[in-house]
Structure formats: C-alpha cells, structure tokens
C-alpha cells in the first residue's frame, strides 16, 4: 500500500465532471510526473491528491486515512503542495517567505524555535537561495522566485511534495534548473515528488514514474522508458511523432513528425480517439 | 532573462539579523506606546477650556467637585478613553481587512459594516425616536452584524474570495448610504441629530458609553490576535494557505466577526470615522513588512495616536469651538498619507 492514492474518485467543479471513477497510486519515493494535453484533468487530479479539491465520489487516501477527514495541519506536515498561483506578500523578504513554510509545525503556544530556524536555513541552502535571504522576493527573477517557493514548501518538511506545473512561465534554462532541483530533492532527500508538467520530454527525462492522462482517464503509467512510445503519444496527445533515445540521457525523446507527414493523417488521428 | 548571480551579502549569519530586526521592531513598538501615553496626557490636559496643569492633576487625583474637576473627570477622561478604544478598534479592523482582502487600500468600512451601523442608527432616530447616544449603540451593532452576515452570504459562503467579499461589501455600502441619505432628506429633525454622528466625533463620549463598548472591542482584539497567523498564510493565496494547513473558511468567518465587533463598536460610539483604519495599517505595513503578527500590535497603538492626536488638535485650532475628529483626521492625515505613499517603502524595520 502506497502512502498516497486515489480510490475511484469522481472529480468535478460545480456540475462539470472532469474525471470519473479514477484510481491511481503514487509509488513511494518516486518522482512521479503527470502528463497529458491541456484540460485533460491532470491538474485537477493533483488538486484532488493535495486535498484542494474534494472528490464528489471515492476518496483520496494518505497513509491509509481519508485525506479530507484528517486535521488540516496533520496533512500539511505530511504532504506539501506548490500551487500554480502563489502570491508573495508585498515587501516580504526571502527568508521571511521561506519561514512561513513552518506554519503547520507551529501553533499559538509553539512559536518560532531554533529548530524552525535551522530548517529554514537548510531549505534555503538546498534550493540555492541562502544568499538571497534578506532580499525582497519581488526583486528576484522568475527562476529565483520559483526556487524560493520551493524552499518554502521544503521548510514544511513533508515526505511528500506535490508541484503543479512548477516550470510554467520560466525560460528553458530556469525550467531545467527547477527540474534539476526536483531530481536532487528526490534523490538526496528521499522525498516523494509528484509534479504536473507540460513538456513531455522533460517528463520523460526526469520522472521515475509517469502517469499519462487523457479526458480524465489514465491512459498509461509506469517508467518513462516503457510508457513513452510513439503510439502512446499519438493516443494521448493526438500527435504523430518518433520516439528516439535522448542523446544525453538515453531516456525517450519525443520528436514530432514533420508537418507534411502529419497533415493527411490528422482526421484519422482524431477519429482514433 | 539574464542569469543574475545573486549579490553576495557580507557573511553575517541570518539568525543574528533576524534577532536584530525583532529587537528593533519590539523597540519601535515600545516607543509607539510611549507616544500614545504622551498623547493621552495631552488629551486630558488640553481642551476648549484652558485648565492649568496643576488643576488637571487636582481633578484627576484629588477631586473636590470644582468646575474644572468635573470637566477633567467627566469630559476629558472619558473622551480620552474612548479615543484609545476607538483607535485600537479602527487600527485593528483596518489591518485585518487589508490582510483578509489582500488589498493594501482596503478599509474597515469595505464590508459594509459602517454603512450597516449608520443605516440602523438613522432608522432608530427617525422611526423609533431614540435620541440618546447609549440608545444608538445597540442599533449600530445590530446593523453592523446584520450587514456582515448579508455580505458574507452574498460574497458566496462556500466560494468566498476576497474580491467577491469586497464587491458585495461595496454594493451593500452604496445601497445603505442611499437609504441613509433618503431618510435624512425626508426627516430634517433626524438630519440635525445625525449630523454630528455621521461626521465622527469623540465629543459626546461619556463613561457609560465607554463601559458599553469596551467588552466588544476587547473581544475583537482577542479574536484578531488569534487569527494573525492564518491571515499571514492566507496572504499567499488560498491554495498555498490551505496547503500549509490553514483553515480558510474558519479564519474568514472569525475575521468578519472581529471586524464587526471592532468596527461596529467604534461606529456605534463615535459615528463612522473613516481614514484612520485605512491609513494607519497601510503605513504600519511599510514599517514592519507584511507580517500580520507585527502589523496588528503596531496598528493598535498608532491608530489611537492618530485619532487622539487629531482630536486634541481639533480642540485647539478652533477654540472655543472645536473641529470634529473625523474632519481633522482626514485633513491632517490626507496630505501626510499622500506624502508617505509617494516615498513608498520607507526604511523597513
């Protein structure tokens, strides 16, 4: 039994059903990446796993308990989330923002402790923002800011960390930078990471476990080397492509077919769905 | 985007800088309390009638019932107490409102609490013929509470978010002030009695009213202190706050209750004094940074400084008459506020 799983959940916003009867397990100590086309429900699935969205049916289990009936702070000490939209309060310093990650470990009677201080230091060191401690968050570049947010999530000290599109709005070098950081956290700190990513090649390169979602259904899951095939990419994304070995890492690399080769196939590809 | 190598800062360990900053903040707060005490002394010593300091002392500690004793004890002391209470209430409710709506320009009246209190008082005066200040108090509270609930429901109980709350509050405010104006136009006698109240004045304060409002303000103070930490978390967005384990709905409801208690009590006692609750928390934020746990105590001390200070000024400039505090805070505070906003981000403590 894995620590985090969803048991035949139905996910819906108001009346709009995104996914029905979905079950998924997040392998412990994996770097799991959820991929799929826009509006396939991958972020919705992540929101359900992080108890931001309550399933209308079924349940999400964390350590064998229904996540929605657990005390909020207890969940927050086990499972962290870096949402897509975080707001840095005006005029906050990096160190102060990271320190707010200690929230679930504090209370009215248990305020700031030396241990909190140490963990904040470590989190900033792990994400390479230790030198920025006294800088204002709004002065930083996008890449630096994302590192600061990850540091805040790390300071929460959760064995599980969920990231919703952590590379969106970053340029390529900062995207790789953030993904390297995630891989490092996974490898050296043994945390279980779950991320939603847009870029299939990034997913194939960094994930140890891949979940492909389409129309609210899980189409395939497993190690990228087994999952990422030309057939799967066409099935999930409706894109004809070749899958070759990444010359750098040997992981699968998706190369979309040339426009001329794709055009006559398109109606067929759509019908196949 | 260029790769920015972060500027290396001198190798001073952070714990030391944090402690230094905490010490600085605490010292600043202590200084602010000192200023507040001075303003209180001034408020008791200075008034429309010039009373020598010796007589003021006499009136405070060895009263023999002279005319001056009565002025000091029955007019100036309650007025000072009320100024402190109302100042605390306005400062705290403004700070909570700004954190709750994530809007640095939010003011306590944004959720319609002031308007609700005003509408209820107008109704009480015009339709029920209630004339005493102590009689208004309960109506003001009732109005404030009802409007808070209505605004919260309109703002979407489940999907309540800062923007929807603020919109619902604004709508309620306009509707209620429309009602207030209509009643005043139709009932000129009520208009006359209301004139003082709607400007905002400490002049009518007496010990009985002070005794009525302080428990509400005390309750509001305790509540705001309880929600300071979750408010900090909520400033980073709903998802982040929830991911950190904060209870959003509970915090929002408690914040609304606190604002209703504080703002309702202040409005009930003195009429809608605008501006203090907007300006003080805003400026405090530029001093302390965005940590609500520091913003609250600073706002609670500096708001009465501004309010009482303005009140004292209002007694001096128009002798032997006086300017109402609501007018003075706006006249004095406005330009100062503009000046400070223009040089935004003063040296942050």
Compact overview of the structure:
The complex is a heterodimer of chains A (273) and B (349). With 273 residues, chain A is of the alpha/beta class.
Structure explained in plain terms:
The complex is a heterodimer of chains A (273) and B (349). Chain A has helices spanning 42-49, 72-78, 94-99, 114-126, 142-155, 172-189, 200-206, 224-227, 230-237, 259-262, 266-272; strands spanning 4-13, 16-26, 31-35, 57-62, 65-66, 79-82, 160-164, 192-196, 209-214, 217-222, 241-245, 252-256. Chain A has 273 residues and is an alpha/beta fold. Chain B is mostly helical. Chain B is 76% helix and 0% strand. Chain B has 14 helices and no strands. Chain B has helices at residues 14-45, 53-61, 67-101, 113-128, 133-154, 162-186, 188-199, 207-226, 228-234, 238-243, 248-270, 276-288, 292-317, 325-342. In chain B, α5 (133-154) runs antiparallel to α11 (248-270), α12 crosses α13 (292-317) and α13 (292-317) packs across α14. The radius of gyration of chain B is 21 Å and the shape is globular. The model of chain B is unreliable at 1-13 (pLDDT under 50). At the A-B interface, α2, β6, α3 and α5 of A face α1, α9 and α10 of B.
Helices and strands, with pairings:
The complex is a heterodimer of chains A (about 270) and B (about 350).
Chain A: E1 4-13, E2 16-26, E3 31-35, H1 42-49, E4 57-62, E5 65-66, H2 72-78, E6 79-82, H3 94-99, H4 114-126, H5 142-155, E7 160-164, H6 172-189, E8 192-196, H7 200-206, E9 209-214, E10 217-222, H8 224-227, H9 230-237, E11 241-245, E12 252-256, H10 259-262, H11 266-272
Chain B: H1 14-45, H2 53-61, H3 67-101, H4 113-128, H5 133-154, H6 162-186, H7 188-199, H8 207-226, H9 228-234, H10 238-243, H11 248-270, H12 276-288, H13 292-317, H14 325-342
Helix pairs in contact in B: 1-3, 1-13, 2-3, 3-8, 3-11, 3-12, 3-13, 4-5, 4-6, 4-7, 4-11, 5-6, 5-11, 6-7, 8-11, 12-13, 13-14
